[in-house]
């Protein structure tokens, strides 16, 4: 320790260094890939990237290496809003009194084979 440094200086320097590196970390992105046209996008993972364009490029490189995707979506993790599992009944309780919500009243065309 030099004569000008104090005993707590090392801890302050370490804290400052950790804060600086955390503030320089790239944001987290959630990646969704559509495997075939007409199907829905599926969440396949997360990655860190500096901007949306780089996030799409990195997602393509990491999650569609074997050309299995037709479309890639990336969303900043901080922008995703989710329901509270404690509110499950309010959101997902089957409303038996609302029969129009059941798919028995709809006829699917023959060309729709993935539902």
Short description:
It is built from three helices and three strands, in the order H-E-E-H-E-H. The protein is α+β, with helices and mostly antiparallel strands and 115 residues long.
Structure, described:
Helix content is 28%, strand content 17%. It is α+β, with helices and mostly antiparallel strands. Strand 1 and strand 2 form a beta hairpin. The chain has a single domain (25-105), classed as Ubiquitin-like (UB roll), CATH 3.10.20.520. The chain has a 3-stranded antiparallel β-sheet, with helices on one face.
What general form does the structure show?
flat
The ordered H/E elements are HEEHEH
In terms of quaternary structure, the protein is single chain
Number of strands: 3
Structural class: alpha+beta
Helix percentage: 25-40%
Beta-strand percentage range: 15-25%
Please specify the SSE layout and strand pairing.
Elements: H1 9-23, E1 28-34, E2 42-48, H2 52-63, E3 71-76, H3 88-92
Comma- or semicolon-separated keywords:
single chain, 115 residues, alpha+beta, Ubiquitin-like (UB roll), 3-stranded antiparallel β-sheet, 3 strands
């Amino acid at each position: 320790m030099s004569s000008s440094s104090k005993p707590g200086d090392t801890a302050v320097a370490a804290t400052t260094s950790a804060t600086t590196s955390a503030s320089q970390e790239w944001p987290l992105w959630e990646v969704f890939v559509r495997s075939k046209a007409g199907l829905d996008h599926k969440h396949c993972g997360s990655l860190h990237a500096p901007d949306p364009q780089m996030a799409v490029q990195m997602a393509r490189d990491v999650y569609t290496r074997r050309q299995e995707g037709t479309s890639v979506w990336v969303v900043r993790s901080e922008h995703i809003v989710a329901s509270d599992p404690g509110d499950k009944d309010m959101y997902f309780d089957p409303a038996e009194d609302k029969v129009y919500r059941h798919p028995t009243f709809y006829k699917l065309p023959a060309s729709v084979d993935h539902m």
